[in-house]
Amino acid sequence: MLPSNPEAQKVDPRVKRTRESLEQAFGGLLREKGFQAITVQDITQRAGLNRATFYAHFPDKYALLDHRIRQGFLQEIDKRMLHACHYSLENLRSLIIAVCEFTSKSVSRCKPPHAQYESLVESQVKAVLYELLLNWLKQVETQVAPETAATAGSWAIYGLAAQWNHSKQSRSALKFADEVLPLVAANLQVTQPA
User: ω before 13 within 30° of 0 (cis)?
Assistant: First the structure.
């Protein structure tokens, strides 16, 4: 099973509150200024913390962004209970919808849009997708190694979601997922569903 947040299960409550303060401050600044314009000083001032406290938690603003994106996507997966599921076409369809909706929200939160920000979203979402798909694929029979299928599937899902986002979402995520489901399922090379 994909752990929803292995770090949070054993973190001191004070550390958790400090991280949440940093994340909230960062989120507000992202909406106001955009990623490139944000400094560590901006984040710590908004959070009411000092720079040493920031650096005790994150090496830089990029690490904070990676953490925020990963945790946000894991929350989206948790909300839809996909981390506890097995491979099925319906679960795969739900995963495609989750990625479309999450990436759409994530990219729209960063003003102005920035290619580097999108690249960080892509790397974190694909990493979580890979872990989840690998977990699912280890429970079924595939024509290729589960690691290969999970890689192909994670890239296909993210790439299709990015295409949907960049096409100004001319159709709903639900309709889009129905259209692309056969393409994604073909990448996974499942021979016998669980």
Answer: no
Rg (C-alpha) for the chain, rounded Å, is: 18
Per-residue confidence band for 120, with pLDDT thresholds at 50, 70 and 90: confident
Residue 133: pLDDT band by 50, 70, 90 thresholds? very high
CB-CB contact of 190 with 140 (8 Å): yes
DSSP reduced 3-state for 165? helix
Cα–Cα distance for residue pair 182/177, rounded to 1 Å? 9
C-alpha span between 13 and 171 (Å, rounded) = 43
pLDDT at 116 over 60: yes
Bridge partners for 192 per DSSP? 141
Please answer whether residues 194 and 91 qualify as being in contact, where contact means their C-beta atoms are separated by less than 8 angstroms.
Answer: no
| pTM higher than 0.90 | no
* Average pLDDT of the residues of the chain: 88
What are the distances in angstroms from CA 159 to CA 66, 126, 170? 19, 10, 16
How much is the pLDDT for 194? 54
Domains and CATH numbers, the chain: 8-189 (1.10.357.10)
Q: Which residue has the tokens 């016998």?
A: 192
Cα 14 to Cα 11, 54, 58, 151, distances in angstroms: 8, 14, 16, 37
